[in-house]
Amino acid sequence: MRTFSLSSLIFAAVCATSQPLVADPSPVVVELYTSQGCSSCPPADEILKRMAEREDVLPLAYHVDYWDYIGWEDAFAAPEYADRQRGYAHVAGRNMIYTPQMIVMGREDVVGADAMQVSEALEHYYGHKPRVNLTVTRKGEALSVALPALPDAKVETLRVQLVRYMPLRRVDIKRGELAGQVLDYANVVESHEVLADWDGTKPLQVDVTLPDALPAAVLVQEWPYGAIVAAARAE
Questions:
Q1: What is the model's pLDDT at position 76?
Q2: Terminus of the chain with fewer CB atoms < 10 Å: N or C?
Q3: Which structural domain, as residue segments, surrounds residue 195?
Q4: Do β-strands 135-139 and 182-198 pair in parallel, antiparallel, or remain unpaired?
């Protein structure tokens, strides 16, 4: 009987697609809400790590703090990440949040540890065209974000956001439900900030000075907590 490791099954499920890899301008954005204090999260963390190997997927790990009371404080967690997760739940009419949860392109809510469900959600967006033409350029510490005016601008708010993340972090967990495990976490969100709220009626140019060499990504999202209409890396 042939046996397969969990990681190989996850890789096959997430990466199986007939679509070609699309480098830019708008990768599929996947937000994982996870915690080092959550015993069901490691499979989702591994799926996200595998996604990070693709050019046409932008996976981001938002660590939440609401499981810290179990016995292990997640050093990557921030209360504003749980607030973001609650915002998605409120807009979608859900009365609960959970880990591991993945939000795909600001629209689809899937169980982050279910590799097949995640793969099916990704299939809907491979090769998609962004709704706005987002240009992001980076030269050292200087980051420039440009968006042209939309010819069909509607009365709505598009929120332009900057996300900084660490490509890989390894943690030796001493206490809690995952005590004794050494786990790798990919694309760990270090900060998430609003650059501008924009209605699309005029071009937008935002210049930012970055304090360090961490990779960055820019998200343009219908607000509040709606579809992500464009995204780009700035690594």
A1: 98
A2: N
A3: 6-234
A4: unpaired
Contacts of 180 by beta carbon, 8 Å cutoff, 6+ apart: 173, 174
Task: Using alpha carbons, list the distances in angstroms from residue 27 to 77, 95, 130, 189.
Answer: 25, 29, 9, 17
Return the structure tokens found at 78: 């921030």
What tokens appear for 175 in the block? 């206490």
Q: Please give the tally of structural domains in the chain.
A: 1
Asked if residue 1 is part of any domain, the answer here is no
In a domain, 49, yes or no: yes
**Rounded CA separation 219/229 (Å):** 8
| Cα distance between residue 66 and residue 69, in whole Å | 7
Residues 6+ apart with CB under 8 A from 65: 35, 73, 74, 77, 78, 79, 81, 82
pLDDT of residue 7: 46
Stretch (H or E) spanning 122: helix 115-123
In terms of Cα–Cα distance, which of 14, 220, 196 is closest to 102? 14
Phi and psi at residue 132, to the nearest 5°: -125, 155
Mean pLDDT of each 10-residue bin along the chain, 235 residues long: 42 50 69 97 98 96 96 96 98 96 97 96 91 94 96 87 98 95 97 97 96 96 97 91
Residue 122 phi, psi (nearest 5): -65, -40
